[in-house]
Amino acid sequence: MAAVLLALLNLLLLHLRPACLASPPNFVLIFADDLGFGDLGCYGHPSSLTPNLDRLASGGLRLTDFYCTSPVCSPSRASLLTGRYQTRSGIYPGVLYPGSVGGLPLNETTIAEMLKTVGYATAAVGKWHLGFGPNGTYLPTNQGFDKYLGVPYSHDMGPCRNLTCFPPDVKCFGYCDIGRVTVPLMQNEFIKQQPVDFLDLERAYSDFASDFITKATTKKQPFFLYYPSHHTHYPQYAGPGAAGRSLRGPFGDALLEFDTTVGNLLATLERTGVINNTLVFFTADNGPELMRMSRGGNSGPLKCGKGTTYEGGMREPAIAYWPGTIRPGVTHELASTLDILPTIARLAGTQLPQVQLDGVDMTEILLHHGKSKREAMMFYPTDPSEKYSLFALRLGKYKAHFYTRGATHSGTTPDKDCQVFAVLKAHDPPLIFDLEADPSENYPLSLVDRPDLQALVHKILMVKAQFEATMVFGESQTGKGTDPKLEPCCTPQCSPKPSCCQC
Q1: What would the mean pLDDT of 127-146 be, rounded to a whole number?
Q2: Are 402 and 343 part of one and the same domain?
Q3: Which residues is 125 bridged to in the sheet?
Q4: What CATH number corresponds to the domain at position 356?
Q5: In this predicted model, what pLDDT tens digit does every residue of 260-292 receive, in sequence order?
Q6: Are 275 and 141 part of one and the same domain?
Q7: What b/e string do you get for 410-429 counting C-beta neighbours within 10 Å, with b at 16 or more?
Q8: Looking at the 3D structure of the chain, how many domains does it have?
Q9: What span, in angstroms and rounded, lies between the C-alpha atoms of 21 and 33?
Q10: Rounded distance, CA 94 to CA 74, Å?
Q11: Whole-number pLDDT of residue 450
Protein backbone atom coordinates (compact mmCIF):
# COMPACT_ATOMS: atom_id res chain seq x y z
CA MET A 1 0.00 0.00 0.00
CA ALA A 2 2.83 2.38 0.88
CA ALA A 3 4.46 1.71 -2.49
CA VAL A 4 1.22 2.55 -4.30
CA LEU A 5 0.85 5.83 -2.37
CA LEU A 6 4.45 6.72 -3.09
CA ALA A 7 3.95 6.07 -6.78
CA LEU A 8 0.84 8.26 -6.82
CA LEU A 9 2.71 11.04 -5.00
CA ASN A 10 5.57 10.87 -7.49
CA LEU A 11 3.09 11.01 -10.36
CA LEU A 12 1.46 14.08 -8.85
CA LEU A 13 4.76 15.84 -8.31
CA LEU A 14 5.80 15.05 -11.87
CA HIS A 15 2.86 16.94 -13.31
CA LEU A 16 2.79 19.93 -10.98
CA ARG A 17 3.99 23.19 -12.46
CA PRO A 18 7.56 24.13 -11.57
CA ALA A 19 7.57 26.21 -8.38
CA CYS A 20 9.12 29.18 -10.19
CA LEU A 21 5.90 29.67 -12.19
CA ALA A 22 3.45 31.75 -10.15
CA SER A 23 0.52 31.54 -12.57
CA PRO A 24 -0.50 29.31 -15.49
CA PRO A 25 1.63 30.26 -18.50
CA ASN A 26 0.29 30.87 -21.98
CA PHE A 27 1.48 28.85 -24.97
CA VAL A 28 2.01 29.89 -28.58
CA LEU A 29 2.99 26.95 -30.79
CA ILE A 30 4.24 27.94 -34.26
CA PHE A 31 4.60 25.18 -36.84
CA ALA A 32 6.21 25.90 -40.21
CA ASP A 33 5.54 23.82 -43.32
CA ASP A 34 8.24 22.03 -45.36
CA LEU A 35 10.97 24.11 -43.74
CA GLY A 36 14.53 22.84 -43.88
CA PHE A 37 17.18 22.80 -41.17
CA GLY A 38 19.16 25.36 -43.16
CA ASP A 39 16.37 27.75 -44.14
CA LEU A 40 16.48 30.35 -41.34
CA GLY A 41 19.00 33.11 -40.88
CA CYS A 42 19.61 31.97 -37.28
CA TYR A 43 20.43 28.48 -38.59
CA GLY A 44 22.96 29.79 -41.06
CA HIS A 45 21.18 30.66 -44.29
CA PRO A 46 23.02 33.63 -45.84
CA SER A 47 20.10 35.28 -47.67
CA SER A 48 16.94 34.43 -45.69
CA LEU A 49 15.21 37.46 -44.20
CA THR A 50 13.81 36.21 -40.87
CA PRO A 51 14.35 39.00 -38.31
CA ASN A 52 11.58 37.90 -35.94
CA LEU A 53 12.55 34.23 -35.84
CA ASP A 54 16.16 35.33 -35.45
CA ARG A 55 15.01 37.46 -32.50
CA LEU A 56 13.42 34.39 -30.93
CA ALA A 57 16.66 32.48 -31.38
CA SER A 58 18.89 35.20 -29.94
CA GLY A 59 16.62 35.77 -26.94
CA GLY A 60 15.64 32.13 -26.42
CA LEU A 61 16.95 28.59 -26.60
CA ARG A 62 17.88 27.24 -30.02
CA LEU A 63 17.74 23.46 -30.34
CA THR A 64 20.12 21.78 -32.81
CA ASP A 65 18.98 18.15 -32.43
CA PHE A 66 15.20 18.41 -32.65
CA TYR A 67 13.09 15.98 -34.68
CA CYS A 68 9.63 15.63 -36.14
CA THR A 69 8.20 12.10 -36.42
CA SER A 70 7.46 11.84 -40.12
CA PRO A 71 8.92 13.31 -43.32
CA VAL A 72 5.44 14.35 -44.54
CA CYS A 73 2.69 16.64 -43.23
CA SER A 74 -0.35 14.87 -41.72
CA PRO A 75 1.44 12.24 -39.60
CA SER A 76 3.90 14.82 -38.28
CA ARG A 77 1.03 17.07 -37.18
CA ALA A 78 -0.78 14.21 -35.48
CA SER A 79 2.32 13.42 -33.40
CA LEU A 80 2.83 17.06 -32.45
CA LEU A 81 -0.69 17.44 -31.07
CA THR A 82 -0.96 14.03 -29.36
CA GLY A 83 2.57 13.26 -28.14
CA ARG A 84 2.26 9.86 -29.86
CA TYR A 85 3.84 8.38 -32.95
CA GLN A 86 1.47 8.58 -35.91
CA THR A 87 1.36 4.80 -36.14
CA ARG A 88 -0.65 4.70 -32.90
CA SER A 89 -3.35 7.09 -34.13
CA GLY A 90 -3.51 5.67 -37.66
CA ILE A 91 -2.34 8.77 -39.54
CA TYR A 92 -0.44 6.74 -42.13
CA PRO A 93 0.50 6.02 -44.88
CA GLY A 94 1.03 9.39 -46.50
CA VAL A 95 -1.27 12.35 -45.94
CA LEU A 96 -4.97 13.22 -45.83
CA TYR A 97 -6.76 14.80 -48.79
CA PRO A 98 -9.81 17.10 -49.14
CA GLY A 99 -12.14 14.15 -49.63
CA SER A 100 -10.49 11.75 -47.18
CA VAL A 101 -12.95 9.64 -45.24
CA GLY A 102 -10.67 9.43 -42.20
CA GLY A 103 -8.89 11.91 -39.96
CA LEU A 104 -7.27 12.23 -36.55
CA PRO A 105 -9.47 9.93 -34.42
CA LEU A 106 -11.68 11.84 -32.01
CA ASN A 107 -10.62 9.57 -29.16
CA GLU A 108 -7.07 10.91 -29.42
CA THR A 109 -6.31 13.64 -26.87
CA THR A 110 -4.76 16.79 -28.33
CA ILE A 111 -2.79 19.47 -26.49
CA ALA A 112 -5.86 21.70 -26.79
CA GLU A 113 -8.18 19.12 -25.22
CA MET A 114 -5.71 18.55 -22.41
CA LEU A 115 -5.43 22.27 -21.65
CA LYS A 116 -9.17 22.87 -21.73
CA THR A 117 -9.51 20.67 -18.64
CA VAL A 118 -7.68 23.36 -16.65
CA GLY A 119 -9.47 26.37 -18.09
CA TYR A 120 -7.40 27.39 -21.09
CA ALA A 121 -8.83 29.26 -24.07
CA THR A 122 -7.69 27.49 -27.25
CA ALA A 123 -7.47 28.52 -30.90
CA ALA A 124 -5.91 27.25 -34.12
CA VAL A 125 -5.09 29.42 -37.11
CA GLY A 126 -3.62 28.15 -40.37
CA LYS A 127 -3.14 24.77 -42.00
CA TRP A 128 -4.86 21.88 -40.20
CA HIS A 129 -4.29 18.82 -42.44
CA LEU A 130 -5.65 16.27 -39.97
CA GLY A 131 -8.86 15.60 -41.82
CA PHE A 132 -12.11 17.27 -42.81
CA GLY A 133 -14.45 14.27 -42.99
CA PRO A 134 -18.24 14.00 -43.18
CA ASN A 135 -19.78 17.33 -42.09
CA GLY A 136 -16.41 18.57 -40.87
CA THR A 137 -16.04 15.73 -38.34
CA TYR A 138 -12.28 16.14 -37.92
CA LEU A 139 -11.96 19.94 -37.89
CA PRO A 140 -10.07 21.62 -35.01
CA THR A 141 -13.28 22.66 -33.23
CA ASN A 142 -13.97 18.95 -32.70
CA GLN A 143 -10.42 18.38 -31.42
CA GLY A 144 -10.30 20.78 -28.46
CA PHE A 145 -9.99 24.16 -30.15
CA ASP A 146 -12.56 26.83 -29.26
CA LYS A 147 -11.90 28.74 -32.47
CA TYR A 148 -10.39 28.04 -35.87
CA LEU A 149 -9.55 30.09 -38.93
CA GLY A 150 -7.68 28.39 -41.71
CA VAL A 151 -7.39 26.00 -44.62
CA PRO A 152 -8.14 22.40 -43.58
CA TYR A 153 -5.42 20.86 -45.77
CA SER A 154 -2.44 21.81 -47.97
CA HIS A 155 -2.98 24.85 -50.15
CA ASP A 156 -1.85 22.98 -53.28
CA MET A 157 -4.77 20.53 -52.92
CA GLY A 158 -6.95 22.50 -55.30
CA PRO A 159 -6.63 24.72 -58.38
CA CYS A 160 -4.15 27.59 -58.19
CA ARG A 161 -6.85 30.23 -57.82
CA ASN A 162 -5.65 33.52 -56.31
CA LEU A 163 -2.29 31.92 -55.57
CA THR A 164 -0.25 34.71 -57.09
CA CYS A 165 2.88 36.70 -56.45
CA PHE A 166 3.52 40.41 -56.75
CA PRO A 167 2.52 42.06 -59.05
CA PRO A 168 -0.95 40.48 -59.00
CA ASP A 169 -0.93 39.44 -62.66
CA VAL A 170 1.94 36.98 -62.06
CA LYS A 171 0.48 33.50 -61.83
CA CYS A 172 1.55 30.98 -59.22
CA PHE A 173 4.72 29.11 -60.00
CA GLY A 174 4.28 25.35 -60.21
CA TYR A 175 1.40 22.96 -60.10
CA CYS A 176 -1.66 22.58 -57.90
CA ASP A 177 -4.30 19.85 -57.99
CA ILE A 178 -7.04 20.18 -60.57
CA GLY A 179 -10.36 18.38 -60.49
CA ARG A 180 -10.91 19.29 -56.84
CA VAL A 181 -12.84 22.13 -55.22
CA THR A 182 -11.06 25.44 -54.88
CA VAL A 183 -9.25 25.87 -51.56
CA PRO A 184 -11.63 27.07 -48.82
CA LEU A 185 -11.02 29.31 -45.82
CA MET A 186 -12.82 27.85 -42.80
CA GLN A 187 -14.04 29.81 -39.78
CA ASN A 188 -14.79 27.21 -37.13
CA GLU A 189 -17.03 24.67 -38.99
CA PHE A 190 -18.15 27.03 -41.76
CA ILE A 191 -16.65 28.09 -45.07
CA LYS A 192 -15.92 31.80 -44.92
CA GLN A 193 -14.39 32.15 -48.37
CA GLN A 194 -13.94 29.87 -51.40
CA PRO A 195 -11.54 30.20 -53.09
CA VAL A 196 -9.39 31.75 -50.39
CA ASP A 197 -7.59 35.00 -51.20
CA PHE A 198 -4.00 34.01 -50.51
CA LEU A 199 -2.64 37.52 -50.93
CA ASP A 200 -4.71 38.64 -47.95
CA LEU A 201 -4.52 35.41 -45.95
CA GLU A 202 -1.64 36.27 -43.62
CA ARG A 203 -3.27 39.55 -42.63
CA ALA A 204 -6.46 37.65 -41.78
CA TYR A 205 -4.48 35.12 -39.74
CA SER A 206 -2.56 37.83 -37.91
CA ASP A 207 -5.74 39.73 -37.05
CA PHE A 208 -7.46 36.53 -35.85
CA ALA A 209 -4.53 35.56 -33.62
CA SER A 210 -4.17 39.07 -32.19
CA ASP A 211 -7.88 39.23 -31.41
CA PHE A 212 -7.79 35.83 -29.70
CA ILE A 213 -4.82 36.78 -27.50
CA THR A 214 -6.33 40.16 -26.64
CA LYS A 215 -9.70 38.71 -25.60
CA ALA A 216 -8.10 35.94 -23.52
CA THR A 217 -5.84 38.37 -21.66
CA THR A 218 -8.74 40.77 -21.07
CA LYS A 219 -10.62 37.89 -19.42
CA LYS A 220 -7.41 36.96 -17.54
CA GLN A 221 -7.72 33.48 -19.02
CA PRO A 222 -4.62 31.44 -19.90
CA PHE A 223 -4.50 30.58 -23.58
CA PHE A 224 -3.05 28.17 -26.14
CA LEU A 225 -2.61 29.42 -29.70
CA TYR A 226 -1.58 26.91 -32.38
CA TYR A 227 -0.34 28.52 -35.59
CA PRO A 228 0.55 25.96 -38.28
CA SER A 229 1.58 28.13 -41.22
CA HIS A 230 1.13 27.34 -44.92
CA HIS A 231 4.46 28.92 -45.63
CA THR A 232 6.82 27.65 -46.96
CA HIS A 233 5.07 24.73 -48.65
CA TYR A 234 5.25 24.77 -52.44
CA PRO A 235 3.91 26.60 -54.43
CA GLN A 236 4.86 29.66 -52.44
CA TYR A 237 2.86 32.88 -52.27
CA ALA A 238 3.31 36.26 -50.65
CA GLY A 239 1.20 39.39 -50.40
CA PRO A 240 2.32 42.89 -51.43
CA GLY A 241 4.04 43.45 -48.07
CA ALA A 242 6.58 40.68 -48.66
CA ALA A 243 6.61 39.86 -52.38
CA GLY A 244 9.85 40.89 -54.04
CA ARG A 245 11.46 41.97 -50.76
CA SER A 246 13.78 39.03 -50.05
CA LEU A 247 16.95 37.91 -51.77
CA ARG A 248 15.71 34.30 -52.14
CA GLY A 249 12.92 34.86 -54.64
CA PRO A 250 9.46 33.35 -54.08
CA PHE A 251 10.59 30.99 -51.30
CA GLY A 252 12.29 33.82 -49.45
CA ASP A 253 9.30 36.10 -49.92
CA ALA A 254 6.95 33.47 -48.45
CA LEU A 255 9.34 32.91 -45.55
CA LEU A 256 9.49 36.67 -44.93
CA GLU A 257 5.69 36.94 -44.86
CA PHE A 258 5.53 34.08 -42.37
CA ASP A 259 8.21 35.74 -40.26
CA THR A 260 6.23 38.99 -40.30
CA THR A 261 3.22 37.21 -38.81
CA VAL A 262 5.51 35.84 -36.08
CA GLY A 263 6.56 39.42 -35.39
CA ASN A 264 2.92 40.50 -35.16
CA LEU A 265 2.25 37.74 -32.62
CA LEU A 266 5.17 38.91 -30.50
CA ALA A 267 3.97 42.52 -30.70
CA THR A 268 0.51 41.44 -29.49
CA LEU A 269 2.01 39.51 -26.57
CA GLU A 270 4.00 42.61 -25.62
CA ARG A 271 1.06 44.99 -26.03
CA THR A 272 -1.20 42.83 -23.85
CA GLY A 273 1.48 42.52 -21.19
CA VAL A 274 1.82 38.71 -21.25
CA ILE A 275 5.10 38.27 -23.13
CA ASN A 276 6.89 37.31 -19.89
CA ASN A 277 4.28 34.68 -19.05
CA THR A 278 4.14 33.03 -22.46
CA LEU A 279 6.17 30.15 -23.88
CA VAL A 280 6.57 30.64 -27.62
CA PHE A 281 7.76 27.46 -29.31
CA PHE A 282 8.69 27.30 -32.98
CA THR A 283 9.50 24.30 -35.16
CA ALA A 284 8.40 22.67 -38.45
CA ASP A 285 6.59 19.58 -39.71
CA ASN A 286 9.21 18.03 -42.00
CA GLY A 287 12.18 18.82 -44.16
CA PRO A 288 12.35 20.75 -47.43
CA GLU A 289 10.82 19.55 -50.70
CA LEU A 290 14.07 19.42 -52.61
CA MET A 291 12.41 18.29 -55.86
CA ARG A 292 11.34 21.95 -56.20
CA MET A 293 15.00 23.01 -56.28
CA SER A 294 15.40 26.63 -55.13
CA ARG A 295 11.64 26.78 -54.56
CA GLY A 296 11.72 23.87 -52.12
CA GLY A 297 13.88 24.96 -49.20
CA ASN A 298 17.27 23.99 -47.85
CA SER A 299 18.36 21.27 -45.44
CA GLY A 300 21.72 22.89 -44.75
CA PRO A 301 24.44 20.31 -44.05
CA LEU A 302 21.91 17.50 -43.60
CA LYS A 303 21.33 14.68 -46.06
CA CYS A 304 18.26 14.67 -48.34
CA GLY A 305 14.92 16.17 -47.34
CA LYS A 306 11.16 15.64 -47.34
CA GLY A 307 9.95 12.08 -47.80
CA THR A 308 13.14 10.43 -46.50
CA THR A 309 14.28 9.23 -43.08
CA TYR A 310 17.68 10.80 -43.53
CA GLU A 311 18.43 13.77 -41.27
CA GLY A 312 17.29 16.33 -43.82
CA GLY A 313 13.81 14.85 -43.83
CA MET A 314 13.21 14.87 -40.09
CA ARG A 315 15.65 17.10 -38.17
CA GLU A 316 14.12 20.55 -37.80
CA PRO A 317 14.98 24.01 -36.54
CA ALA A 318 13.38 24.59 -33.13
CA ILE A 319 13.34 27.59 -30.81
CA ALA A 320 11.90 28.04 -27.31
CA TYR A 321 11.38 31.65 -26.26
CA TRP A 322 10.17 32.83 -22.86
CA PRO A 323 11.70 36.11 -21.58
CA GLY A 324 12.77 35.91 -17.96
CA THR A 325 12.24 32.15 -17.76
CA ILE A 326 14.29 30.59 -20.57
CA ARG A 327 17.88 31.77 -20.68
CA PRO A 328 19.26 32.50 -24.16
CA GLY A 329 21.55 29.82 -25.52
CA VAL A 330 21.96 26.73 -27.64
CA THR A 331 21.37 23.10 -26.68
CA HIS A 332 22.45 19.94 -28.46
CA GLU A 333 20.19 17.71 -26.37
CA LEU A 334 17.92 15.25 -28.19
CA ALA A 335 14.27 16.34 -28.35
CA SER A 336 11.19 15.96 -30.52
CA THR A 337 7.76 17.33 -31.38
CA LEU A 338 6.51 14.38 -29.31
CA ASP A 339 7.87 16.10 -26.21
CA ILE A 340 5.82 19.28 -26.56
CA LEU A 341 2.59 17.82 -25.10
CA PRO A 342 4.14 16.44 -21.89
CA THR A 343 6.19 19.62 -21.46
CA ILE A 344 3.11 21.82 -21.74
CA ALA A 345 1.28 19.48 -19.33
CA ARG A 346 4.04 19.95 -16.77
CA LEU A 347 4.13 23.72 -17.15
CA ALA A 348 0.34 24.08 -17.04
CA GLY A 349 0.00 21.71 -14.08
CA THR A 350 -2.42 19.37 -15.82
CA GLN A 351 -2.59 15.59 -16.02
CA LEU A 352 -1.28 13.68 -18.99
CA PRO A 353 -3.68 11.74 -21.21
CA GLN A 354 -4.13 8.18 -19.97
CA VAL A 355 -2.67 6.56 -23.10
CA GLN A 356 0.68 5.25 -24.27
CA LEU A 357 2.70 8.44 -24.81
CA ASP A 358 5.96 8.62 -26.75
CA GLY A 359 6.91 12.12 -25.60
CA VAL A 360 8.95 13.07 -22.54
CA ASP A 361 8.98 16.24 -20.45
CA MET A 362 11.71 18.60 -21.63
CA THR A 363 11.38 21.33 -19.02
CA GLU A 364 14.85 20.44 -17.72
CA ILE A 365 16.24 21.36 -21.14
CA LEU A 366 14.19 24.53 -21.52
CA LEU A 367 14.37 25.97 -18.00
CA HIS A 368 17.84 24.84 -16.94
CA HIS A 369 19.69 23.99 -20.16
CA GLY A 370 19.90 20.52 -18.65
CA LYS A 371 19.94 16.97 -19.92
CA SER A 372 17.26 15.38 -22.06
CA LYS A 373 15.08 12.56 -20.77
CA ARG A 374 14.84 11.26 -24.31
CA GLU A 375 17.01 8.21 -24.85
CA ALA A 376 16.24 7.56 -28.50
CA MET A 377 14.40 8.83 -31.56
CA MET A 378 12.57 6.50 -33.93
CA PHE A 379 12.31 7.11 -37.68
CA TYR A 380 9.29 5.82 -39.58
CA PRO A 381 8.96 6.17 -43.38
CA THR A 382 5.99 7.83 -45.08
CA ASP A 383 4.36 4.38 -45.35
CA PRO A 384 5.09 2.64 -42.04
CA SER A 385 4.12 -0.98 -41.65
CA GLU A 386 4.46 -3.70 -39.07
CA LYS A 387 6.41 -5.74 -41.62
CA TYR A 388 9.29 -3.27 -41.90
CA SER A 389 8.70 -1.19 -38.75
CA LEU A 390 11.47 1.35 -38.07
CA PHE A 391 13.66 2.55 -40.90
CA ALA A 392 16.17 4.15 -38.53
CA LEU A 393 16.85 4.85 -34.86
CA ARG A 394 18.98 7.47 -33.14
CA LEU A 395 20.57 6.57 -29.80
CA GLY A 396 22.71 9.28 -28.26
CA LYS A 397 24.90 10.70 -31.00
CA TYR A 398 24.63 7.59 -33.16
CA LYS A 399 22.06 6.86 -35.84
CA ALA A 400 21.38 3.39 -37.23
CA HIS A 401 19.69 2.87 -40.61
CA PHE A 402 17.95 -0.49 -40.97
CA TYR A 403 16.46 0.54 -44.32
CA THR A 404 17.25 3.39 -46.67
CA ARG A 405 15.22 4.73 -49.57
CA GLY A 406 14.99 7.88 -51.65
CA ALA A 407 11.80 9.85 -52.30
CA THR A 408 10.11 11.81 -55.06
CA HIS A 409 9.97 14.81 -52.70
CA SER A 410 13.78 14.82 -52.52
CA GLY A 411 14.47 14.29 -56.21
CA THR A 412 16.68 16.58 -58.36
CA THR A 413 19.47 16.67 -55.76
CA PRO A 414 22.95 15.56 -56.83
CA ASP A 415 22.93 12.95 -54.04
CA LYS A 416 21.62 9.76 -55.63
CA ASP A 417 20.63 8.36 -52.22
CA CYS A 418 17.88 10.99 -52.04
CA GLN A 419 16.25 10.39 -55.40
CA VAL A 420 13.20 8.22 -56.02
CA PHE A 421 15.41 5.81 -57.99
CA ALA A 422 17.19 4.91 -54.74
CA VAL A 423 14.93 1.94 -54.04
CA LEU A 424 14.37 0.30 -50.66
CA LYS A 425 17.55 -1.29 -49.35
CA ALA A 426 17.90 -3.32 -46.16
CA HIS A 427 21.03 -3.04 -44.01
CA ASP A 428 22.04 -5.92 -41.74
CA PRO A 429 24.00 -4.98 -39.75
CA PRO A 430 22.58 -1.44 -39.83
CA LEU A 431 24.49 1.50 -41.22
CA ILE A 432 25.84 3.48 -38.26
CA PHE A 433 26.63 7.19 -38.38
CA ASP A 434 28.16 9.45 -35.74
CA LEU A 435 25.90 12.50 -36.13
CA GLU A 436 28.15 14.77 -34.09
CA ALA A 437 31.11 14.15 -36.36
CA ASP A 438 29.11 13.53 -39.53
CA PRO A 439 25.66 15.17 -39.51
CA SER A 440 25.52 14.79 -43.29
CA GLU A 441 25.47 10.98 -42.97
CA ASN A 442 28.20 10.61 -45.55
CA TYR A 443 30.53 8.19 -43.78
CA PRO A 444 29.11 5.03 -42.19
CA LEU A 445 31.30 3.69 -39.41
CA SER A 446 33.15 0.46 -40.01
CA LEU A 447 32.19 -2.30 -37.58
CA VAL A 448 35.26 -4.34 -38.39
CA ASP A 449 37.62 -4.73 -35.42
CA ARG A 450 35.57 -2.26 -33.36
CA PRO A 451 34.18 -4.15 -30.35
CA ASP A 452 32.78 -0.88 -28.96
CA LEU A 453 30.65 -0.40 -32.06
CA GLN A 454 29.50 -4.00 -31.98
CA ALA A 455 28.32 -3.43 -28.42
CA LEU A 456 26.60 -0.25 -29.62
CA VAL A 457 24.75 -2.15 -32.35
CA HIS A 458 23.63 -4.70 -29.78
CA LYS A 459 22.23 -1.94 -27.57
CA ILE A 460 20.51 -0.23 -30.52
CA LEU A 461 18.84 -3.50 -31.49
CA MET A 462 17.72 -3.99 -27.90
CA VAL A 463 16.21 -0.47 -27.72
CA LYS A 464 14.51 -1.08 -31.07
CA ALA A 465 13.00 -4.37 -29.90
CA GLN A 466 11.78 -2.85 -26.63
CA PHE A 467 10.09 0.01 -28.47
CA GLU A 468 8.49 -2.22 -31.09
CA ALA A 469 7.04 -4.40 -28.34
CA THR A 470 5.03 -1.37 -27.16
CA MET A 471 3.81 -0.33 -30.61
CA VAL A 472 0.23 -1.12 -31.53
CA PHE A 473 -0.61 0.14 -35.00
CA GLY A 474 -3.91 2.00 -35.10
CA GLU A 475 -6.34 1.56 -37.96
CA SER A 476 -5.06 3.47 -40.98
CA GLN A 477 -7.07 6.65 -41.48
CA THR A 478 -5.55 7.52 -44.85
CA GLY A 479 -6.25 3.95 -45.93
CA LYS A 480 -10.00 4.53 -45.65
CA GLY A 481 -9.94 6.18 -49.06
CA THR A 482 -11.50 9.36 -50.40
CA ASP A 483 -14.94 10.47 -51.51
CA PRO A 484 -15.32 13.59 -53.71
CA LYS A 485 -18.64 14.28 -51.97
CA LEU A 486 -16.72 15.02 -48.76
CA GLU A 487 -14.70 17.85 -50.29
CA PRO A 488 -15.74 21.11 -48.58
CA CYS A 489 -18.09 23.15 -50.77
CA CYS A 490 -19.80 26.39 -49.69
CA THR A 491 -22.72 25.66 -52.05
CA PRO A 492 -23.13 21.91 -51.49
CA GLN A 493 -26.14 21.46 -53.77
CA CYS A 494 -24.63 23.32 -56.74
CA SER A 495 -23.70 21.85 -60.13
CA PRO A 496 -21.42 21.11 -61.82
CA LYS A 497 -18.87 20.33 -59.15
CA PRO A 498 -16.15 21.10 -58.35
CA SER A 499 -16.13 24.35 -60.35
CA CYS A 500 -19.41 25.64 -58.85
CA CYS A 501 -18.05 25.66 -55.28
CA GLN A 502 -17.42 29.40 -55.02
CA CYS A 503 -18.65 32.01 -52.60
Answers
A1: 97
A2: no
A3: 149
A4: 3.40.720.10
A5: 999 999 999 999 999 999 999 999 999 999 999
A6: yes
A7: bbebebebbbeebeeeeeee
A8: 2
A9: 32
A10: 7
A11: 80
Active-site amino acid positions: 73, 129
Is the same domain home to 368 and 403?
no
Distance, in Å, from the CA atom of 128 to the CA atom of 136, rounded to the nearest integer, reads 12
pTM above 0.90, yes or no: yes
The DSSP bridge pattern shows strands 278-284 and 26-32 to be: parallel
Nearest CA-CA partner of 286 in 497, 79, 63: 79
pLDDT number for residue 18: 62
The band of 243, judged by pLDDT with boundaries at 50, 70 and 90, is: confident
Candidate from 16-25, 208-217, 225-234 with smallest mean pLDDT: 16-25
pLDDT of amino acid 3: 46
**Inside any domain, residue 282:** yes
Are 344 and 280 in a shared domain? Answer: yes
Residue where a domain terminates, one of 326, 354, 375: 375
User: Angle of helix 2-15 relative to helix 340-348, nearest 10 degrees?
Assistant: 100
Provide the residue range defining the domain that includes 332. 22-375
In terms of domains, do 184 and 298 share one? yes
Strand blocks (E) in 343-471: 376-379, 392-395, 398-404, 425-434
Strands lying side by side in the sheet with 398-404? 376-379, 392-395, 398-404, 425-434
